[in-house]
């Protein structure tokens, strides 16, 4: 019981502390590709610490939902880190409480809360970003749930740890339904974490989506929302790596859980390299093309689901 508790703590702390690093690495690589020195890979940490020290200002139109929901969103991502195979490949302390579908619903809950809290600010600019996020998220959430249903049909369970074991079997890993589910999940990760070459942190960019939701925040709430965004990227990306793309190499035991953080670092470098190639090779998509992109991901997930049904018939 003590070892399971320690493994759980190691995974949760790993998610909280390491997640901002990968955004810093990707930003550094982008700058290097553009022949610029770029900022430090630890810049996301500096930004978070700076925001934690700043004063929080609140719009006169905002309600208590606007003030306290960032803490709930951040806590939701911590809960997700306690129930899915982010770092450690075997069930941990709270795993029996949530399956794949439950994890997807927690991600959807966090996204829904971000939209609600943003609308509470009363800003027209934020309302525009919220409308965009809502118009795209229905396809993203449909893709996520459909992929997990396909996985459940293949493995006979909705347990992510069982899927992790199945993915290590060559004949399953190379099956067409698994390949399509992997591609669909990767496309979803690109969208959900802002890796599609369409969004921008620049305030003049008409393609702003996720950044518009936190536009009215400052101080500690803004720090938590940014930190939560890094955690969301890490959680989804780690599921993609451990359950679909690169399920091998994970270690067991307390020491193994600590080693897994380093192993995940190597896996993440591979994933970030793919994201870098996509970001620097493709021209920015027009905003309305985002729905086309997500529609393709949804079709791939549906195809994977149909193939799973046929194989189990």
Q: In words, what does this structure look like?
A:
- The chain has 313 residues and is mainly alpha-helical.
- The chain has one domain (2-312).
- The chain has twelve helices and no strands.
- α3 packs antiparallel against α4 (100-119) and α8 runs antiparallel to α10 (219-245).
- The chain is globular.
- The N and C termini lie far apart (40 Å).
- Residues 201-206 have low confidence and may be disordered.
**Could you list the spans in which at least 5 consecutive residues all have pLDDT below 50?**
201-206
- The count of β-strands is 0
Alpha plus pi helix count: 12
Terminal CA distance:
40 Å
Into how many domains do the coordinates divide? 1
Helix percent reads over 70%
Structural class: mainly alpha
**Series of H and E elements:** HHHHHHHHHHHH
| Biggest sheet overview | none
How much of the sequence is in beta strands? under 5%
Write a concise keyword list for the protein shown above.
313 residues, mainly alpha, 12 helices
Set out the fold topology.
Elements: H1 2-33, H2 43-53, H3 64-81, H4 100-119, H5 124-155, H6 160-167, H7 170-173, H8 176-192, H9 210-213, H10 219-245, H11 253-281, H12 289-312
Can I get a quick summary?
By secondary structure, the protein is mainly α. The protein has one domain (2-312). It is 72% helix and 0% strand.
């Amino acid at each position: 019981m003590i070892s399971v508790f320690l493994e759980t703590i190691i995974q949760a702390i790993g998610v909280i502390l390491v997640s901002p690093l990968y955004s810093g690495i990707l930003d550094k690589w982008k700058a290097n590709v553009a022949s610029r020195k770029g900022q430090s890979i630890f810049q996301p940490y500096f930004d978070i610490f700076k925001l934690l020290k700043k004063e929080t200002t609140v719009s006169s139109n905002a309600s208590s939902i606007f003030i306290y929901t960032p803490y709930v969103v951040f806590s939701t991502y911590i809960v997700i880190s306690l129930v899915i195979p982010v770092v450690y490949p075997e069930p941990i302390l709270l795993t029996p409480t949530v399956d794949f579908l439950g994890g997807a619903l927690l991600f959807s809950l966090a996204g829904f809360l971000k939209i609600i809290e943003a609308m509470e600010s009363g800003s027209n600019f934020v309302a525009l970003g919220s409308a965009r996020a809502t118009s795209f998220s229905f396809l993203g959430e449909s893709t996520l749930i459909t992929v997990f249903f396909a996985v459940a049909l293949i493995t006979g369970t909705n347990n992510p740890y069982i899927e992790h074991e199945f993915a290590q079997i060559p004949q399953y890993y190379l099956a067409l339904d698994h390949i399509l589910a992997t591609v669909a999940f990767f496309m979803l990760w690109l969208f959900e974490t802002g890796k599609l070459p369409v969004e921008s942190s620049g305030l003049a960019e008409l393609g702003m989506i996720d950044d518009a939701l936190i536009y009215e925040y400052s101080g500690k709430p803004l720090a938590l929302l940014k930190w939560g965004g890094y955690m969301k990227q890490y959680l989804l990306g780690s599921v993609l790596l451990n359950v679909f793309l690169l399920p091998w190499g994970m270690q067991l035991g307390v020491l193994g859980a600590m080693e897994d953080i380093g192993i995940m670092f190597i896996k993440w470098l591979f994933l970030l390299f793919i994201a870098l190639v996509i970001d620097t090779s493709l021209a920015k998509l027009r905003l309305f093309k985002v729905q086309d992109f997500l529609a393709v991901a949804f079709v791939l997930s549906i195809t994977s689901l149909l193939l799973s049904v046929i194989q189990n018939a």
